[in-house]
Amino acid sequence: MNQEELDTDYDVIVLGTGITECILSGLLSVDGKKVLHIDKQDHYGGEAASVTLSQLYQKFKQNPISQEEREAKYGKDRDWNVDLIPKFLMANGELTNILIHTNVTNYVEFKQVSGSYVFKQGKIYKVPANEIEAISSPLMGIFEKRRMKKFLEWIGTYKEDELSTHLGLDLDKNTMDEVYYKFGLGNSTKEFIGHAMALWTNDDYLQQPARPSFERIVLYCQSVARYGKSPYLYPLYGLGELPQGFARLSAIYGGTYMLDTPIEEVAYTEGNEETGKFHSVKTKLGTFKAPLVIADPTYFPKKCKSTGQRVIRAICILNHPVPGTGNADSLQIIIPQSQVGRKNDIYVAIVSDAHNVCSKGHYLAIISTIIETDKPHIELEPAFKLLGPIEEKFMGIAELFEPKEDGSKDNVFLSRSYDASSHFESMTDDVKDIYFRVTGRPLVLEKKAEEETA
């Protein structure tokens, strides 16, 4: 792309091609904004890219094996699309709604994840996906199953404006622990609901108002009901397809993309990063102006702060399905913190050649959790034990960052780092939050989604 072909004035400049940034780029382009999207890397996805096996070795191994050795063992490099940050989509979640609303589903194909499993007393058990599975599940005894059934019936029939459906509970005043007590649910059932359905990463939620947990359980149940088997979807060819899909959307609506273009300088109206407003960025292709910029934390490290949490992720290559899962081609395993003496859950996401992310006969298991000790690699041992023999292992640690301010002062709107959770709900909350701060209005999806299904 020549300098002569490029305009220099835009409505919005977006830096970084993480999923958050690409969604916002697509949404703002659809809104009629003139968007310029720049990334210092030569591929889409930013911190959450999908990479080839050779890229994975370069990133994580100091002495990577030769291409010949690698291909003899694992097949062609082009057959591998390995997610650096593993997450599944909730079938009824906000990211799925955004994909439908924007028609990005035209560019990305999804496959359902076969099952969700939970670790209990040294074994993994399938999370029931329907009533028949629930009745036969060894996760609960017969009386506990009845209590659980009553709890789920209450969730399903609850109506905000009909007090008779509330059973005397106030979602904004009663804690989730009080809700469990009302239904007489035992500790292992509470753990199962809170961690395998509401998908909380720790037990802090128990003493908080019940509404967020209620909404998470509703989302889980609706997502399972949509396709059966599990609540999760996953894109063929890996999560890197998502930013590319939104990039195509942006381009259709006039957005301009420049990959492999480092930022040489950021200018402010007063010439000062501390007091001025965003003015322009200088690159090898020229200087580009806009009244505001959206970026990931790596572009403005001084404007970000650590959340105080670090995440460890381990990418494991297997040549066999995970034992005890009925040869499932994809699944999630949740290891609740109390089962392994921790404060935070451990998540394992497993995909395979069925998703075009690895060569035939191979599986990818990606483990993630929030670090709690000074020996983070040992913290993942409970997950490694569940996987059986591991052919190759890549491990990385990431510090989580968030913006110091909301962007209104300097017109620099920053996204948050991707957390340790197994799904995209917190990321889509970030998208909606930034969209609101940038445009001054909430992101509304319902109308188009209704037209789609009409």
TrEMBL record:
Q: Which GO terms describe its molecular function?
A: Rab GDP-dissociation inhibitor activity
Q: Name one GO cellular component term.
A: cytoplasm
* SUPFAM superfamilies reported for this sequence: FAD-linked reductases, C-terminal domain, FAD/NAD(P)-binding domain
- Read off the InterPro entries from this record: FAD/NAD-bd_sf, GDP_dissociation_inhibitor, RabGDI
Which residues are listed as membrane-spanning?
none
Its Gene Ontology biological processes?
protein transport; small GTPase-mediated signal transduction; vesicle-mediated transport
Which Gene3D superfamilies does the entry mention?
A: FAD/NAD(P)-binding domain, Guanine Nucleotide Dissociation Inhibitor, domain 1, Guanine Nucleotide Dissociation Inhibitor, domain 2
As for family, the record states: Belongs to the Rab GDI family.
**PANTHER family xrefs:** RAB GDP DISSOCIATION INHIBITOR (PTHR11787:SF8), RAB GDP-DISSOCIATION INHIBITOR (PTHR11787)
Q: What is this protein called?
A: Rab GDP dissociation inhibitor
Q: Which organism is it from?
A: Naumovozyma castellii
Q: Which gene encodes it?
A: NCAS0B05720
